[in-house]
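Q: Give me the 3D complex with glutamine.
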Amino acid sequence: MKYILVTGGVISGIGKGIIASSIGTILKSCGLRVTAIKIDPYINIDAGTFSPYEHDALELETPGTASCFNVGPGNPSSGEVFVLNDGGEVDLDLGNYERFLDINLYKDNNITTGKIYQHVINKERRGDYLGRTVQVVPHITDAIQEWVMNQAKVPVDNNTEEPQICIIELGGTIGDIEGMPFVEAFRQFQFKAKRENFYNIHVSLVPQPSATGEQKTKPTQNSVRALRGLGLSPDLIICRSSTPIEMAVKEKISMFCHVNPEQVICIHDVSSTYRVPVLLEEQGIIKYFKERLDLPICGYSSYLFSNWKCMADRYERLQKSCSIALVGKYTKLRDCYASVFKALEHSALAINHKLNLMYIDSIDLEPITKAEDPVKFHEAWQKLCIADGIIVPGGFGVRGTLGKLQAISWARTKKIPFLGVCLGMQLAVIEFARNCLDLKDANSTEFEPNTPVPLVIDMPEHNPGNLGGTMRLGLRRTVFVTENSLLRTLYGDVPFIEERHRHRFEVNPSLVSHFDQKDLSFVGQDIDGKRMEIIELTNHPYFVGVQFHPEFSSRPMKPSPPYLGLLLAATGHLDAYLQQICRSSTRGPLRKNDWNSDTSDDSFLEPTMADLEIS
Ligand code: GLN
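A: Here is the predicted complex, encoded as structure tokens.
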């Protein structure tokens, strides 16, 4: 096992996660099996422990400070809780690894200080330390090393072989108090793992203050000095900068940071994250990795990597655009919808369109905003009206639901392509019941516990006593109950699918019969037919709701079918695409089971899109 530790210097938020994922992509394209571990030095056990109920209370007290989507406390930069197949609620960076490497990670691939301490304290309670004093060094640091070594071995793609390379990203920056036990653990670990198996990449910032326009190396020098002071020496210094770094600057970093010039790599701001692996590869890091870690690489112009190059090029050449309105809560905190944004972008790129995502705060669509700030209200409605497609993503709490319901009405009646995800689907069902059935008072018990028409209800097994762990989480099966379903076709005409969930409420199965013979049907259900998982509206170009979160399994080269459908409908290509699938059922863009099959390199949509002449 080769371990690549990625640390950060100067400030956080400079793209360490993207760089670490990109390195994984490059190594994977060299034919190696790669896994990833993200370390978040905060004390929470995971990102999902913040109860939506508490969150709602907080939200009422301090509007604008809380996230719409369960912020991981202690990690203020994050917004979205990313959900894994095993139901792990983790930092959104794990999503980058899954997307870049096309792998499926587990909750133990996200280490937090809380998890490590919990593990050590449990051992202490069991008496495993035989009454000795339990200390940060060696007990916490040993636990960190053991965790990393055990988790690195767990296969993460559909093949059962152990990974060969484990990329470990240490969150935060060198010098943070919270990160110290982890740095110390890796200082010890480099000797345990041996030099040829351990590699440190330090991602730093080279600022360019506008006063002089000069690229400054001092912050990088200082952070490398801090890193060395803690006993780790960088094998590669990756400098983030706004413009390409000049040779003289590179040489200066090399000289002051005690590394060869070829160990200084520059990643300047680029048009898309797809460009990052390409930039890294162009600077010759494969050769360096190969030699330093003695990697079994022979030739690396793999098909996978050329696909990345082609994707980055295509992204820059996109001419047509498609505007999608995302109607959510606190849309200023864009990270809340990171995976939704990515999933939309994957689909847009697959059909050669630039994504023009318009964030709308659902409250701005409500009468209250009309009364208080009419300009804001009209601007929000104007955005909604010009959108080619509308998405209402997941969310918690009653605030802003009225605006979401209005956006859904607009999409339904004006026949604008619509995708409702989780809460978005629940609201679409409520909207339909209120306006098309005789159920004017239909509501969710989440918003009105004593509603006379509880159309969306608390799940029976829901246990409100605990914080965290009370949701239906992770990969669950949805069975298509009819052949006549758009999503079924988009998924490649499969009888069932498995997607990730994160919810507490669901459509009340005892009221589903009201929808019989109506335009809205529940085409996907759980295996017992009790849980409504997918809705579709007939007599509409694309009106789809899903109880699951398909965005978590969307990949750049395997866009998520519900999102792809939205983009195809929004650009007017859905019918041609469906005909194409019917014509060549053996060679649909998302072939049978492709969305969850093994990592087949040739699953990119481009050939089929070329057939469709979407250029
Ligand atoms: N609040 C809703 C529920 O708990 C929806 C959750 C979500 O959108 N993720 O069921």
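A quick observation: The first helix runs from residue 16 to 29.
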